[in-house]
Specification:
The chain is mainly β and about 210 residues long. Helices cover about 10% and strands about 50% of the residues. It has an 8-stranded antiparallel beta barrel with strand order 1-2-3-6-7-8-9-11.
């Protein structure tokens, strides 16, 4: 796990060290050539693939309201399953299933600051998220760093990392999900805190 996490950080660092000149050239050329409005797009509708591992199927909308700032909001459906992971795809833990097969919901607000004006500029943000399922509500607050690429004219692919903390409130002493191999329920306190380390892989459409 430790080696996978270090590799994850190293690859992410290399992505952000890609030459800045390419993005600057794109921005300069778009001032004199018609690119179909791609370079001036302000809207992005996307979904975070990594959230699916937590049973969260989100629809995200991002609006670039200024040259260096945007706001991303989202709503999602919580499904009755969860992959218990530490950092994204580097999980080796067993999956969990919820004891009650019902649906929950998630809400997200994510303001961002871009280091350049172009659409593929790296961005820093503050992620605020709530996930509610049954009698459990989880709040997450994290600083984020994200890099976006525009492919096939208007398809956006974003890769990011989150670092913060999570806060959980439960109105019941019973854990609503259980590990399959134990086939039993666990208990936890009504309030709980922990460090939040995660990632995002978003696929969307800009317009």
């Amino acid at each position: 796990m430790k080696h996978s996490y270090l590799l994850f950080l190293f690859v992410f660092f290399l992505l952000f060290k890609l030459p800045v000149s390419n993005a600057q050239n794109k921005s300069s050329i778009s001032e004199y050539m018609d690119d179909g409005g791609v370079s001036s797009a302000k809207h992005n509708i996307s979904t975070n693939i990594l959230s699916y591992t937590r049973g969260d199927i989100p629809i995200l909308y991002e609006y670039r309201f200024a040259k260096y700032f945007s706001i991303e909001t989202g709503v999602g459906v919580m499904l009755p399953y969860c992959l218990n992971y530490y950092v994204g795809a580097f999980s080796t833990n067993k999956s969990e299933e919820y004891a009650e097969k019902t649906l929950g919901y998630s809400l997200l607000v994510h303001p961002k600051y871009f280091v350049r004006k172009d659409l593929e500029a790296p961005a820093f943000g503050l992620l605020c998220r709530m996930r509610h399922y049954g009698e459990v509500t989880r709040f997450g607050f994290a600083t984020t760093i994200e890099k976006r690429w525009i492919c096939w004219n208007r398809i956006s692919i974003s890769f990011g990392m989150d670092l913060g903390f999570s806060y959980q409130i439960s109105s019941s002493p019973e854990d609503p999900f259980y590990f399959e191999k134990y086939n039993t329920k666990a208990t936890y306190p009504n309030e709980e805190y922990w460090i939040l380390i995660g990632g995002s892989l978003k696929i969307g459409f800009i317009f």
